[in-house]
């Protein structure tokens, strides 16, 4: 309701505008007509309520002297007078109206939005939602309160969704021939995220396109988005080295192998010790099917020439290759010789393991014989041996020579094989020969 402003005409012709809500008290008491029910026009208040009390009581709302209280509905604020009175001038003492209250416009939140039930007016509720991959933190909604302020606090949209990454499948690679590694390549995985378009994918492990060692190699990738949400994946690179069974070295010989010795493509070559020669293929190769090509080779005792004319020609064949055990006896019926044969029976294998060749000198001229196993020696060679090493025909004796032909020990009584072998092992074998002997000791059992 709005009360009009009165205009008063003065004698000078000037017009005086009364104030918007002011009124002038009369010096005289007006004649109040309480019987006129419409002294002032009936007050009204849009979006509000007018409560009036008349001196006459009852339903008289606009009689002279009536006072009205003005109040606004919820969501509206009263502007103007909260209490007005019907004056003698037939005007109300003031005016008022109800203005709708509003809250401030809510700011947009990054990576989110909101929708409101009635805009920004009182009791309107605004619900917040976040973009895919983000989650509301704090309040999910805010309400415009009667005082014109929003309830709660402005929420945030936090990136709570981790990125996604998928590693390539695990793979098996066979090492190339002669190698213990394999070169393996793959395409790095691509990572995606609902919030971030570009992501930094980090490799934890060996780079693709490099040589991987035999066995299992675990490759990991991890990725972080801008909110430090993390995702990871892994796969296995398995390198298989195809292998053949280990080749045993030949008796009286050794092997030298390339690469790791028994892997696919490895080549092993046979070598024989002094006094032995190779029988069979000199080398074998490990095939893809885990088998060696060819057959195993052997190291067999060299065939020495017994029909040489001089002792030096004979000894040169053994130099740095074999040791010699020269046994001398007056004849084959000699008691010590017979005892020696009994005690050293079946010792050929043990002598071979120790690289010992036996030469027998038996009897006296003209029936004197010299032999290496079944091969007979000439008389000049027999005489040369006796003179070179001072071997008598009169009694049983044994002379042990090293590989350089040096006289190392003499025995004038028969000796059991264990005693003879113990002496050879202790004083004539080098470290490498001892190791080989231990490796093949059971060969003669």
TrEMBL record:
GO biological process: angiogenesis; cell-cell adhesion; positive regulation of cell migration involved in sprouting angiogenesis; positive regulation of synapse assembly
SUPFAM superfamilies xref list: Complement control module/SCR domain (SSF57535)
Keyword tags: Angiogenesis, Cell adhesion, Cytoplasm, Disulfide bond, Repeat, Secreted, Signal, Sushi, Synapse
Gene Ontology molecular function, alphabetical: signaling receptor binding
Top-level lineage group: Eukaryota
Organism phylogeny: Eukaryota, Metazoa, Chordata, Craniata, Vertebrata
Paired cysteines (S-S): 130-157, 272-299
Organism from which the protein derives: Scophthalmus maximus
Classification via Gene3D superfamilies: Complement Module, domain 1
Assigned GO CC terms: cell surface; cytoplasm; extracellular region; synapse
Domain (HYR): residue spans on this chain: 158-241
Protein name (database record): Sushi repeat-containing protein SRPX2
InterPro entries, per the entry: DUF4174 (IPR025232), HYR_dom (IPR003410), SRPX-like (IPR043555), Sushi/SCR/CCP_sf (IPR035976), Sushi_SCR_CCP_dom (IPR000436)
């Amino acid at each position: 309701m709005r009360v009009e402003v009165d205009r008063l005409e003065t004698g000078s012709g000037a017009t005086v505008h009364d104030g918007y809500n002011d009124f002038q008290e009369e010096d005289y008491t007006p004649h109040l007509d309480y019987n006129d029910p419409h002294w002032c026009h009936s007050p009204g208040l849009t979006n509000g309520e007018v409560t009036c009390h008349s001196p006459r009581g009852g339903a008289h709302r606009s009689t002279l002297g009536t006072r009205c209280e003005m109040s606004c509905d919820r969501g509206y604020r009263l502007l103007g007078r909260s209490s007005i009175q019907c004056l003698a001038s037939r005007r109300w003492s003031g005016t008022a109206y109800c203005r709708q209250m509003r809250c401030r416009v809510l700011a947009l939140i990054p990576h989110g939005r909101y929708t409101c039930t009635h805009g920004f007016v009182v009791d309107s509720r605004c619900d917040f939602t976040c973009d895919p991959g983000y989650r509301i933190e704090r309040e999910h909604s805010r309400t415009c309160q009667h005082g014109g302020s929003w309830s709660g606090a402005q929420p945030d949209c936090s990136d709570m969704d981790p990125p996604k990454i998928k590693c390539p499948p695990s793979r098996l690679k066979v090492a190339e021939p002669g190698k213990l590694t394999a070169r393996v390549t793959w395409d790095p995985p691509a990572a995606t995220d609902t919030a971030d378009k570009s992501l930094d994918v980090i490799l934890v492990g060996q780079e693709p396109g490099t040589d991987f060692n035999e066995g299992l190699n675990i490759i990991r990738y991890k990725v972080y988005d801008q909110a430090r949400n993390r995702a990871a994946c892994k796969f296995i690179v398995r390198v298989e080295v195809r292998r053949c069974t280990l080749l045993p070295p030949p008796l009286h010989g050794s092997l030298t192998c390339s690469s790791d010795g028994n892997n696919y493509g490895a080549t092993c070559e046979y070598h024989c010790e002094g006094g032995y020669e190779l029988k069979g293929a000199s080398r074998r190769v490990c095939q893809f099917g885990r088998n060696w090509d060819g057959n195993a080779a052997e190291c067999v005792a060299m065939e020495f020439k017994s029909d040489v004319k001089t002792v030096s020609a004979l000894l040169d064949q053994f130099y740095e290759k074999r040791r010699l055990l020269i046994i001398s006896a007056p004849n084959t019926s000699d008691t010590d010789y017979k005892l020696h044969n009994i005690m050293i029976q079946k010792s050929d294998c043990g002598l071979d393991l120790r690289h010992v060749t036996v030469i027998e000198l038996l009897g006296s001229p003209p029936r004197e014989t010299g032999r290496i196993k079944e091969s007979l020696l000439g008389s000049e060679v027999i005489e040369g041996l006796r003179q070179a090493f001072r071997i008598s025909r009169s009694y049983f004796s044994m002379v042990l020579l090293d590989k350089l032909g040096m006289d190392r020990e003499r025995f004038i009584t028969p000796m059991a094989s264990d005693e003879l072998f113990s002496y050879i092992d202790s004083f004539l074998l080098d470290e490498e020969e001892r190791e080989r002997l231990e490796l093949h000791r059971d060969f003669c059992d």
